[in-house]
Amino acid sequence: MTKLLEQAIARLKTLPANEQDAIAAMILEELEDEIRWDEAFKRSKDALAFLAGEAMAEYRAGKTQELDPETM
What phi and psi values does residue 12 have, to the nearest 5 degrees? Predict the structure, then answer.
């Protein structure tokens, strides 16, 4: 365990139980969310590569236009 994590846990221990549980729930939710994102990106690698290839083909074929942020 890192020193920073140890410090955070030490401070959390001083909070009331309901606040500790609320922060623990947020941490666990964040960790689960990170796992879901990692899995989604792993599954989408091929799809992203395919879409990038299509975009480059359209660019080379002159089917794209330069983005003007002022007109967005």
Answer: -65, -35
pTM of full prediction above 0.85: no
Q: What's the DSSP call for residue 72?
A: -
Domain ranges of the chain: 10-61
What does the pLDDT read at residue 46?
82
Q: Supply the pLDDT for residue 6.
A: 97
Alpha-carbon span 18 to 40, nearest angstrom: 33
- Residue 42: CA atoms inside 13 Å, Cβ hemisphere, count? 6
Binned at pLDDT 50, 70 and 90, residue 33 comes out as: very high
Residues in contact with 24: Cβ distance below 8 Å, sequence separation at least 6, in sequence order: 12
